[in-house]
Amino acid sequence: MGSLFTSSQLVVYVLVLQTLFASSSLLKTNYGFSSNSDYISAIGDPGMKNPNVRVGFEAWNFCNEVGFEAPQMGSPRLADCADLYCNNILTDSLGGAPLGNGRKCEVRHKVNESDNSLGTGDKFPVTDFESFTDPDLFAVEKELYLGSLCEVHESTKPWQFWMIMLKNGNFDKNTTLCPENGRKVSKIVTGRNFPCFGEGCMNQPLVYHNYSRLVYLGDQMVSLMGGFNGTYDLDANISKGIGKNSFFSVSWQKNLSTGSWIFSNTLTTSAKYPWLMLYLRSDATKGFNGGYHYNGSGVMNKLPESPNFKVKLTLDVKREGGSNSQFYLLDIGSCWKNNGKPCDGDVLTDVTRYSEMIINPATTSWCRPDNLVSCPPYHVSPTGEIIYRNETSRFPYSAYHLYCCPGNAEYLEKPYDICDPYSNPQAQELVQILPHPEWAVHGYPEKKGDGWIGDPRTWELDVGALSNRLYFYQDPGTPRARRVWSSINVGTEIYVSRAGETAEWSVSCVTIMSTAEVVVNLGSDADPTNMNVEELTQLVAQRFAPYLLVEPVKEQIFAPRSPLKPPRPTWPDPDLPRLAIRLISTVNSWVSASLPPPTRFATPGGSGSSSSLWMNMSSYNLTALTSYRFLH
């Protein structure tokens, strides 16, 4: 067998997916989550409680690019980043500033009008950013520039802003603005139908910015309020009313009872623009975001990975947007190649992967026994059982709206349907799911109507567990990709409406939490280079047996301790979550195995040790484990 590791330094990550013992040294707050598990925030603004405004805005054409800027609008990347100061004292934890005693408050903007109005070819005020004459490339650089102005350095992992994303679904097949599965083509040849009223239908919108301003909440409190609004109809004057024009609006204000920002959203389609999308996005602070093939900005400074993360949010849907409004309770985006390797910017081999929970009860299941082409090849039950789509008595067809395959996949199982090859800069794969008992075990809606109009809810979603169950295509014989998600979004896609439709909703209290990672050094006295699976397993068994004290302190490494006799153990519930063990080399090649819960747990007493976790590893027959997954 070939080399598995290139270094003699071997490290084990013990990922406690849902431990019974909360670590006071690691978990300072549960951010409103109901469980007592060890979680850390994956975003710079957990619960949306930062008292200052950090909001970005981006507009895309059909293939997630710019194409052409709207007249007098500049590049469609903007930001509203403002700090609230009251006599040089920052605001309180709920985002409001108490008045009285002669105190005065002011708003300090970090992004001004000249920054937001920058357009293709303009020079940036600082030399760190390069100007481009290509509208697509300029927008990338402008987003990074705005992010640098907004960046928050409250921790070792800075963040920039929450992102508002607006997208035009019109596609002119007479142009070559959009590639086909990442490949530039000289002519679009397709039997698919797309809306387009003629030349110029893929335009960018008119965007108007209400910069964050002071708002007085009674006689004793002051906060900030702002927003963006606009239209795709370039000849419209929405100051005189919306009329029959397209329209979008996003505004933010503080809820002083919860401390969270409330984002209020409105989206209206029109005859010329029947397919529009509007989302609030939590994007990665660097690297590729969902649907991007270049470096971006965002609020997510720790990328969540399946199955180890949860999302909490409050959603109030007020107007549906018509029967074609595919309202996403959650839309998660990632990117990996068909061979399981991470994306590297090569649009010919990268694949954007999406999973979307649609909660509009008018959305039906296209996945049916008589339409297997819209179903994934198999479904994974909560217990891990694989159920194939042709098992008509067992497959949960109504749990899926549709599934479609990436256009660059080479080993597809018939029947199959290729995802739209034009609406991303590279090939894409979609898994769209519907409310169903299969997903309810993870906190998702169980039936149609849950969380819909008149039923506002605060959702606590085990997104990591659900996304780990979903089918995504990979080439046969390749190691399973790490499902690391770089975008998590809430909003709607009004899909080709016959008439003008309006959707209205609000989002607040968004929190993304990843499980804590505990790192233990296995030691370097044994060289794992060229070890096969059996030899590597024996090394793990030697290091863990019979007892090991693991202190859950993030980003520190502890040497293995000699066998210690723990206090009298307590027997855990047999339904305890599973533990995952990862073997990691210095070059991040890794192996993981899922193990059943340890047979004994105990919490050592004594000062300073109440958060430690004792594990009796001798109960594991580690030498018999061969179900490792190798990722190179």
Features:
single chain, 632 residues, mainly beta, 2 domains, eleven-stranded mixed β-sheet, globular, disordered C terminus, signal, DUF7705
Written account of the structure:
The relative contact order is 0.17. Strands 3, 4, 5, 7, 8, 13, 15, 16, 19, 20 and 22 form an eleven-stranded mixed beta sheet that branches. The protein has helices at 113-116, 135-150, 437-440, 463-469, 533-544; strands spanning 11-16, 39-41, 53-60, 77-86, 89-90, 97-98, 105-109, 162-168, 206-217, 221-231, 247-254, 261-268, 276-283, 309-320, 325-335, 351-358, 378-380, 386-388, 400-404, 427-433, 457-461, 485-494, 502-515, 517-521, 547-550, 557-558, 579-584, 590-595, 601-602, 613-616, 629-631. It folds into two domains: 11-26 and 517-631, no CATH class; 46-515, no CATH class. By secondary structure, it is mostly beta strands. Strand 4 (77-86) and strand 5 form a beta hairpin. InterPro entries: DUF7705.
